[in-house]
Hints:
By secondary structure, this protein is α+β, with helices and mostly antiparallel strands. It has five helices and eight strands, in the order E-H-H-E-E-E-H-E-H-E-E-H-E. The two termini are 30 Å apart. The mean pLDDT is 89.
Amino acid sequence: MISQLSDIYIVPMTREHIDEIVALEAEAYGSHHWSRDSFLNEISNELAHYWCALDEDGSLTGYAGCWQILEEAHITTIAVSPKFRRHKIGEALLKTILDDCYKNMIKYITLEVRISNVPAISLYEKYGFKSLGSRKGYYQDNNEDALIMWTENIFYDKFKLLYEQNIKSLTEKVEIKCQG
């Protein structure tokens, strides 16, 4: 187990990150994961917004992305290397997505998450996502159901207050350095 990271560097995903991302994708999700071409397509998609989390040495520790369409965003992926989990990287990536949504006037955010992924569900609930149903057999590798989660309007005072409280707590534990 590595010691707690003090700095998390968030950068826009580029072609140069793809090989590391594909390796992390396989490590995080096993044999059923996105292909190299899938990620290359995503970074060239005008609707897609993707980021990488790097450690102090510039090594990939996680990545995340979403599609932004009109006033809605759909989080397509958040993945953290198993050896870097529980170090606030997933939360830093979620913060980056939320910050970008605020910047681009996106009001609502949705996602699907495996019903067995309790740590991810807890993180999303911490940030105000609520379950609004499920998709039966959504994950093809094991036919697991997906929980569908949504935010209310992120510009509502209630959501913004929760966001600000969470970010204050997060930034007391790690420094997030965003580029781009």
